[in-house]
Amino acid sequence: MHGEVTISGAKNAVLPILAATLLTAEPCVIRRVPNLSDVKFMCQILTWLGAQVRCEGDTVRVQAKKIKGAGDYDLIRKMRGSICIMGPLLGRLKKATVSLPGGCIIGARPINLHLKGFQALGARVTIEGGYVHASAKRLIGSALFLGGRAGSTVLGTANVMMAATLAEGVTVIESAACEPEVVDLANFLNAMGARITGAGGPTITMTGVKELHGAEHEVIPDRIEAATYAIAAAATNGEITLRGARADQMYAVLDKLSDAGAKIERNGSSITIGRKGRLKPVDITTLPYAGFPTDVQAQMLTLMTVTPGISIITERIFESRFMHVSELARLGADIEIEGPSAIVKGGKPLSGAPVMASDLRASAALVIAGLAACGTTQVNRVYHIDRGYENIDGKLRQLGARIERIEES
Ligand code: EPU
Fold this sequence. Notes:
- It contains 14 helices and 22 strands.
- 32% of the residues lie in helices and 24% in strands.
- The radius of gyration is 21 Å and the shape is globular.
- The strands form six sheets. Strands 1-14-16-15 form a four-stranded mixed sheet. A four-stranded mixed sheet has the order 3-4-2-13, covered by helices on one side. It has a four-stranded mixed sheet with strand order 5-6-8-7.
- It is α/β, with parallel strands linked by helices.
- Helix 11 (323-330) packs parallel to helix 12 (360-372).
C-alpha cells in the first residue's frame, strides 16, 4: 500500500470529553470528532440525559442545560466506555445512578477503582439490582490512589478527575493513568475553567471550582488508528504517510516497528512508514502508557505472523485479549498461547479465508492479515471495527488496498 492517510480524532479521548460537557449548562464545541459508532452512541446517551447535541461534519455542539442523573442498562451495556458519564453526573448533580457495564470479550473490566475514587471524594456508593448509585451532599477533595493490578485505570482517572473538578478543596490522584487521552481531557476541563495540573504524569492535582463554563476543544489525533495504518504499511511492504499523527505519543509503537525492520521518517506532523529491509521478530509486552499499548497488541501480533522467526507477545492489561489468535490460525498463522503470552512462529505465508471479528482491535488485526495474505479474506461482524476506525475501508482503498464492504442483507 502506498500513499497518505489523514488520522482522525482519538476515540478514547473524545468519549470522556463528550461526557465532560455534562459538567456545565453552557454550550461546548468539540472539533475533530471522528465519525464512529461509539461516538454516535455517546451522543445518544447525552441526548437521553437531557443535553442538546448537534453534529456537523467533525464538529459536535453540546449544551446540557438540564440533565438527569441516571443512565440505564440498555444504554450502558452497549458500550463500556459509557461508564465515564458517572464522574460528570456526580460532579454536577452530586448524584449518579448508572448501570454496571459488566465485562466484555477482552476481559472482566471491573470498575472498583472508579468507585474507590468517588468514595474518596466523600460519595456514598452502593450497588443494587445491577446499578451503581453514588451520591454525596458535598464532594470534598482528598488524596487518593488509583493503582490497580494492571497499573492505573484510564477511564477511572477520567471519571474521578471530572467529578473532582467541582469538589471542594484539593484532590490529588496518585498513580493516575498517564495516557495522552487523559491529558486531552484535562486540557478540555481546564478550558472549561477547571484547575488541573500534572495530567500526563502519575500525580494529578485538582483544585475544585464552583462551576465550569462552556469551551471549545479540538481532540488529539488517534494514536491507535495511526499505529494500525503504520503496521499495515510494514505488513504489506508498502509506504504510508500518516498525516496529522503525533509521533510524540507513539514512541513505544514506533520503536518496536523500527526494531522489526520498519523505516520511520518524521516530518512535522506527518510520519512516513516503509521498510528498511526484511522484517525481524520482536518481543512485546503491553503496559500502561508510555509502554506498548494493549490496543495495538493484536495488530502487532499479526505483523509478527508474517515475520520470519519467533516472537513473544505478552498481554499484561486485559486477560483474554487473544481472541484474534484462533482466527489468524484460520489464515495459516502458527501461534501458541502460553499463559499471558502468544508465541508466534512467523514467516509462513498467510492465505485468505473467512474470519470472525471479536472486538475492535481484533477486527483491525484481521483486516491487516487479510491485506498481507494471498487470496481473499472475508472479515465478518465488522460492526466492531466501525466502533473505533473512521471509514477504514475508504482510507485503505485510497492507499491501494483491494477492500470492499459487503452490507448485510
Ligand atoms: N481495572 C481494574 N479496576 C478498575 C478499572 C480497571 O482492575 O476499576 C483494570 C482493568 O481490568 C485492566 C486495567 O485495569 O486490567 C486497565 O483498564 P482501564 O480501566 O485502564 O481500561 P478502560 O479505561 O476501561 C481504556 C480504553 C481501552 C484501552 C484501555 C487501556 C476507552 C474508552 N477505552 O479502557 O480501549 O484498552 O483504556 O489502555 O478509553 C479500545 O479502544 O479498543 C479499548 C479497549
